[in-house]
Design a protein that fits this description.
The complex is a heterotrimer of chains A (230), B (149) and C (580).
Chain A: E1 2-4, H1 30-65, H2 67-74, H3 79-105, H4 108-138, H5 160-193, H6 203-228
Helix pairs in contact in A: 1-2, 1-5, 1-6, 3-4, 3-6, 4-5, 5-6
Chain B: E1 7-8, E2 11-12, H1 26-46, H2 55-74, H3 82-107, H4 110-116, H5 121-125
Antiparallel strand pairs in B: 1-2
Chain C: H1 5-17, H2 30-34, H3 39-67, H4 75-82, H5 94-138, H6 146-168, H7 182-185, H8 190-217, H9 230-262, H10 275-308, H11 316-329, H12 345-373, H13 382-405, H14 407-413, H15 417-447, H16 453-479, H17 494-520, E1 558-560
Helix pairs in contact in C: 3-5, 3-6, 3-17, 4-5, 5-6, 5-8, 5-9, 5-10, 5-15, 6-8, 8-9, 9-10, 9-11, 10-11, 10-12, 10-13, 10-15, 11-12, 12-13, 13-15, 13-16, 15-16, 16-17
The chains are: A mainly alpha (230), B mainly alpha (149), C mainly alpha (580).
Chain lengths: 230, 149, 580
């Protein structure tokens, strides 16, 4: 084993990008830094998928135990609201992808515009969700021991409190992810306004984008399972 | 992308190329967007047909199609490093393991119950009781939902 | 070592000519420690905190082992009635003390289990030795995400605070497994403990993620996958499990929290849920978690066995890939924890069969280590004593695991002291012994200090005797039908229980002795007059090529690797390390 006692710059192989302003000292090249960040993000996404998988499994088990109850209970979810939210999230995914593209080509106004649109769609999603939740609260369709829908004139056979428990856990955790998404999107927006991103450095935009697409992906499965399937 | 090569003792060092970047044209994103909207409309429309037991597989196939579009084009997996695809797919495999074994156990448990004479509460609820005479009112948000399924 | 001697000598001279300040003194002040992003300092901080909790868990164990000295429940009532109420006692009220003693026993073993699992064994090796060594072994300046590493440590501290809060808010009596429906109905502070474990899970995920990316992206030029020290391979396999399994624990605990607070009923049979579903969720994480605990230990042993027998490791690729194989197989065997909890027989048969598959890669490892020892120049340094101890105790632990994986045998042995003995032979006799061995191996590198050799060898002997005395009996006890988690027992078991308790005292003294001489080596007056040599044991991996203790940025330049880390320099007859 040997070490070369040259200046740190010499560790950068020929042909590598010039370091940008956000280059961390412990990497050899900016590419290495970007690659590490992206790999880290993918690994993080895989933990997210596994975390949600527990809830999906709970859903399938409840469905397996009580097929009739699940079918009866899901009719009480608002398909149209769910559909609107699906379209909203898909659109926000497109604007997010366009924001990443804008960063890749170095168009700061376009990054900002697309990020703003994404944040806006995320807000719309939460507003629709708010109205859906309010309706469920009013009808007493709540999880577990708080389930009182029968007092409001709805009869669902079996154990619908479990279905609504799963419903609230799944959409609730997803909603928390949307809120976190709004937070990180705002952070990226602020950094974009400061002109931090360009073709040489757009890792945060890209990684937040990956996160946002995952939130979309999960909704793509939640929507048919909770609202549509019978 | 720049061809970055590091040489050591005259031999190229493996795995030093770190970044695979790919800039898709806007038109690709728009096409994918269109496809996603069509698929959403499709799954929404299909839910009003009475497909019976086929409805879950159909809905899942459409969802998987949508998810693959998002992964491949929005998340750039189509152009990305193979290892990221590997991570993503192996995650799904582990999810599959989790699902398969748990569902396998929970669905093959009835044998034990018959032998031991034990039961779970859920088996009583399997047969829904007759609905009470209380009229089911329209509940504002799911009016379109048919009463039968 | 391909470099020629003259170059090496020149470097050597240069290294001594201008010693840079080590990472320990490069920055000063409390703040420079609490907010450090240096992986070496974080490693030391993890080391301190895990050892602190090791002590807490150990004290709990000593307390309930003392209770088990006699068949009647007498020690805990005595203890409670003599403790002031502020410390959870009854302040002289003997009747109240007797009434509480069973619950107190439950709380004690739960504290022992939960603290040892969540706060000690899972973070101990990756957190301390992993953090310290991984970048050094890979030839990197730091882990891939140093700030995430700091966050991970503080998340760990936050989780630990939740656990401490649990202790003072009425304790926890569910056992570390939180089985429903008991955990969703008992009156103890389950929710704060659940949040604690949930938060610690995040720390574990962040560490695993960081290490995975570090190994992928931060290897020095020339450090191919097959030139990585085996410790890195085992940390990699550990990281894979941490990343893939821990999220499921997170969602399980979250579901249990809502189950407890909102009664959602998904794990509650009275509300149409299924308690066995909880066990599936829990063990999907917790069985792989067992390998999170043991795999880093395997990595340490691979290093110790090779370095101290001065021989190239036998079956490098077999050991490396068996770590990954264990990581993957660990995900398909979790049902063997549920053989008697209402799982379907068919599933139990499948899980039992799959369980045997784990034995294969594990045996590959053990055989490779033994083959490495064969005809090696074995030096009985303290770390090597622990490595040999590991081979002995871990083999017992591993093989008794096969008994328990056998369906019909498990029906007899489940929930007895046999199970207790089995997992202590694996966790304590495996991971902790390996951890202590690794600590002795890298202590000079980490601190720049040496410990007393004779003391360390005698302490190792005490640990070995104490450990086996405590737990070997328990195999017999369990086989004879002594159930675990009981605080009274029939008098016929007293002799074995007494021996076990005395063994636990010896073990405790041995561990205390280790703590004392290691701490003593840190005193200002114990500082060596001349800086220690860079290479304490004649190891060939990169961490030995840098200064002892390492400088803040690890290496004086970019290390380059052109050989594998087990090509040891020969030793001449005087026992001194020859560099060529």
């Amino acid at each position: 084993m040997s070490t070369d006692h040259e200046s740190p710059k010499a560790h950068r192989p020929e042909g590598a990008h010039e370091p940008h302003a956000f280059f961390a000292h412990h990497f050899n090249t900016p590419d290495q830094q970007a690659g590490a960040a992206k790999l880290g993000m993918w690994v993080f996404l895989s933990t997210e998928i596994l975390m949600f998988s527990g809830l999906f499994l709970a859903y399938f088990i409840v469905r397996m135990f009580y097929p009739d109850m699940v079918l009866a209970a899901h009719e009480h979810l608002n398909k149209t609201a769910g559909g609107i939210n699906t379209v909203v999230l898909i659109t926000s995914s497109v604007t997010m992808a366009l924001a990443v593209r804008a960063a890749q080509v170095g168009n700061t106004p376009a990054i900002k515009r697309n990020l703003l649109l994404t944040i806006m769609f995320a807000g719309v999603f939460m507003v629709v969700k708010y109205f859906e939740y309010t309706a469920k609260f009013e009808h007493g369709m709540l999880p577990g021991k708080y389930y009182t829908a029968f007092e409001h004139g709805y009869y669902i056979p079996g154990n619908p409190h479990i279905f609504f428990a799963v419903y609230f856990c799944m959409t609730g955790l997803h909603g928390i992810h949307v809120l976190v998404g709004i937070g990180v999107l705002t952070w990226v927006y602020i950094r974009a306004s400061k002109g931090h991103f360009g073709p040489n450095y757009y890792t945060p935009v890209e990684n937040v984008g990956l996160y946002w697409h995952l939130v979309d992906l999960i909704w793509i499965f939640l929507f048919p399972l909770l609202y549509l399937v019978r | 992308m720049t061809e970055t090569k590091l040489h050591l003792h005259g031999k190229p060092v493996e795995g030093f190329v770190e970044l695979h970047e790919h800039i898709s044209p806007v038109s690709t994103y728009m096409k994918v967007f269109g496809a996603l909207l069509v698929l959403t409309a499709l799954t929404y429309a299909v839910s009003y047909m009475s497909l019976g037991p086929a409805s879950l597989p159909v809905a899942m196939i459409v969802a998987v199609a949508k998810a693959s579009l998002v992964c491949m084009f929005f998340m750039h997996l189509k152009y990305d490093e193979r290892y990221h695809v590997f991570i993503f797919l192996s995650t799904l495999i582990f999810v599959g393991i989790f699902f398969t074994f748990t569902i396998f156990d929970l669905s093959s448990r009835t044998k034990l119950q018959e032998v031991q004479g034990t039961f779970f509460l859920k088996d009583f609820d399997r047969e829904p009781e007759a609905p009470p005479p209380m009229p089911v009112e329209a509940h504002g948000e799911g009016e379109a939902a048919p009463a039968e399924h | 070592m391909a470099d020629d001697k003259s170059k090496h000598d020149a470097e050597h001279a240069e290294g001594h000519g201008k010693r840079e300040p080590s990472y320990l003194v490069a920055q000063r002040g409390l703040k420079s420690w609490l907010f450090t992003i240096d992986h070496k300092r974080l490693g030391l901080m993890y080391l301190g905190s895990t050892l602190l909790f090791f002590f807490v868990g150990g004290v709990a164990a000593i307390l309930f082992r003392t209770e088990l000295l006699t068949p009647a429940g007498d020690f805990i009532p005595w203890l409670l009635s003599h403790l002031p109420t502020a410390l959870g006692g009854t302040g002289g009220d003997v009747e109240a003390a007797v009434a509480q003693s069973a619950t107190t026993y439950n709380k004690l073993f739960t504290v022992h289990g939960a603290v040892m699992v969540f706060l000690v064994i899972i973070p101990a090796v990756p957190g301390s030795l992993g953090n310290f060594l991984l970048p050094l072994m890979l030839g990197a300046k730091d882990v891939a995400f140093p700030r995430l590493n700091l966050l991970s440590f503080w998340v760990y501290t936050l989780g630990a605070c939740f656990f401490l809060y649990t202790l003072f808010a009425g304790g926890l009596d569910t056992g570390w497994t939180f089985y429903t429906p008991y955990s969703s109905t008992t009156g103890t502070a389950v929710v704060s403990a659940l949040f604690g474990a949930f938060i610690l899970g995040f720390s574990s995920i962040l560490t695993g993620l960081n290490f995975m990316v570090t190994i992928h992206k931060m290897r020095a030029p020339g450090m191919t996958w097959n030139r990585m020290p085996l410790f890195c391979w085992s940390i990699y396999a550990t990281a894979v499990i941490q990343v893939l399994a821990t999220p499921v624990l997170a969602i399980t605990l979250l579901l249990l929290v809502v189950e407890r607070t909102l009664n959602i009923g998904i794990f509650d049979p009275a509300m149409g849920g299924d308690p066995v579903l909880f066990q599936h969720f829990f063990w999907f994480y917790s069985h792989p978690a067992v390998y999170i605990m043991i795999l880093p230990g395997f990595g340490i042993i691979s290093e110790l066995v090779a370095v101290h027998s001065r021989k190239h490791i036998f079956g490098y690729k077999a050991i490396a890939l068996s770590s990954v194989a264990i990581a993957i197989i660990s995900f398909i065997v979790w049902g063997h924890h549920m053989f008697v909890s209402g799982q379907s027989e068919l599933a139990a048969i499948v899980f039992s069969f799959l369980t045997f598959a784990v034995a294969v890669p594990t045996a590959i490892k053990v055989f490779s280590w033994v083959a490495t020892l064969y005809k090696g120049s074995i030096q009985f340094n303290t770390p090597m004593l622990y490595a040999l101890m590991f081979l002995f105790t871990f083999s017992i632990g591993g093989l008794t695991g096969v008994f328990l994986g056998t369906l019909s045998v498990d029906v007899h042995l489940h929930d007895t002291y046999f199970v207790v003995a089995h997992f202590h032979y694996v966790m304590m006799g495996g991971t902790i012994i390996a951890f202590i061995g690794g600590l002795h191996h890298w202590w000079p590198k980490m601190t720049g200090r040496t410990y007393s050799v004779w003391q360390s060898k005698w302490a190792a002997l005490l640990v070995f005797i104490g450990f086996n005395m405590t737990f070997f009996n328990q195999f017999v006890l369990g086989q004879q039908g002594m159930p675990r988690r009981y605080y009274t027992y029939v008098p016929q078991f007293q002799q074995q229980h007494m021996m076990s308790t005395i063994g636990s005292y010896i073990l405790f003294l041995g561990l205390l002795w280790i703590a004392i001489y290691l701490l003593a080596s840190l005193r200002r007056s114990a500082a060596p007059k001349e800086p220690l040599p860079d290479n304490t044991w004649g190891g060939a991996s990169l961490e030995w090529s840098t200064q002892t203790p390492p400088i803040e940025h690890n290496f004086h330049g970019q290390p380059r690797v052109d050989t594998d880390p087990y090509n040891f320099p020969q030793i001449d007859r005087t026992g001194e390390v020859d560099h060529h």
